[in-house]
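Researcher: Go.
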Amino acid sequence: MDIVYFPRDTNDREDWIEDTIQPRIAMQRGHNVIVGDANKNHDGAVIIGNGFKQFNINLGTPLWPRLEQVSKANTYALSDTFANHAGRMFELSEFTPEQIEEAVKKIDRPCFVKFVAYQKATSLCKVDPTEHIEAKLHKHYMYEFVRLGRDNPNECMTQERVDMNYEYRVFVVDGEPVTGAGCVEVHTPLENTTVFNSAMEKNRNGGHIEDRLDLSQSYERFARDVVCPSFAEEGFVDYSLDLFQDGKNGELGIIEINPIHPSGMYAIDYPKYFDSVISVLKQNQPT
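Model: Structure:
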């Protein structure tokens, strides 16, 4: 199979390693790897990587991630599955200081504010119901209110702040959780030891890495038996699933889901992930 990659233009160590591992595993599997060219259609190949929506691609060309699943993942905040397993109170609203302030007062607890209409558009803002909320929002977001607000009643999530410990990412392909790893920023697939890797940090970027095999197994069961079947019923089948353990009651919950590519891979079992992706792409490859 011819596989076209569009690697990222990055100086980030982890991104660079991930973009190196992907074509290497493809070649080890006997595939012909091609670096993407913006001036070519790459007919007869499957396309994996970032930025391919900018290029001239024939309809019917197999792509990863599947474009409909990219846009679908960005609507997770509207799903019943997320609401049932978020492990915290939250309110959706337009991205305006007035509506966010109303949401904070309704939750009546310390909150995070997050723009969720699409990925990583702004940073999080911490807000407490006792402070001057509108003034803090204007200071934090400044021109983002004008740049991003689109009168969308579901574009902003105001959520209760809870102790999110041992953050963990699971890669879900065609509805099945195939591999996972703790959200340890310095880890890449080079540090992988098991399909659902057990290295985690209690506090993200805290610097203290623990081996929590018990918790990685719990996350796998939670994803496989509870979360993924429910998301699949709502049409979510390809995505990265971020999970956490509540620091107070020990329960597992969903942080968010994101488009599966280019989500950071951390120490996932990349060959396992790659084989799952190729299986899906083969099913969709024109004959």
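Model: The chain has three domains: 2-65, 72-79+163-282, 89-160.
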